[in-house]
Amino acid sequence: MIKIIECPRDAMQGITKFIPTETKIEYINALLKVGYDTIDFGSFVSPRAIPQLKDTAEVLEKLDLTHTNTKLLAIVANTVGGEMAASHSKITYLGYPFSISPTFLRNNINSTIDQAIVTTNRLQNICEKSNKTIVCYISMAFGNPYGDKWSVEVLEEWVDILSKLGVKIIALSDTTGDSIADNVYSVFSDLIPRYPKIEFGFHLHTTQSTWFEKVDAAYKGGCRRFDTVINGIGGCPMSGKEMVGNLKTSNLFKYLENQNIPSDIDKDAFFSAFIKAMSVFPTFDFKNTLHSLRKKKD
Question: Which of 47, 179, 234, 257 could make an S-S bridge to 11, C-beta 3.0–4.6 Å?
């Protein structure tokens, strides 16, 4: 079964104008009705780094989980954030932005790779004590735009280290949108058989002209976990590069439908959440996607 992880946190984090807390609450509560496996809803990181998400704890307090099977994931950058996230019973997953790129780790969370391994181990211990699960995001999993050493073999070495620390979910990430389909297929088809106890996911930042070939390569390589964002908004503001946007949720739906792949998505609830997204992100062009969704709904 396909797992879809909707990521409003990724959509919001790079927006300068503060989105009101109540607006975030209404939007994420709408997303909780859609049937996603998980919502990546916020982060417990320094408000100086990501001021848009300084209200994560307030948002969390008013999220309604009584009529949903969807789980919540919060991003943390260190053990302080991990302890804060783990103290909330509504949260199932702690997401940690690991990377095999020393340059990106410095840019993103001001860490070395050695420090990131120590942090991962400590977060894993926090998760075990609080009945949470760590999700490690490996940024630059499909190539490196900074000139750092990259190969499938290097990636394998780091996956092996994380596996030995007990990490069970790894989201392979194309943070800057530079991946090519051949690398995406090679990575998933190599790692998934080697590590059958690890659930591998795909966190894809992509242009609208290249998403299909990369999603297709990931699926054919064995990936069954995909991160998406309504209308493809967002990206990483810490990469030092232009944000290219995320995989559109509607594009993944289109791919699944064309391939006759089932999902647990409630299309009516998704349409309602999409309408709410128009008020959350009013500066973005929703017209073409809305027209397509209305045609399918009718």
Answer: 234
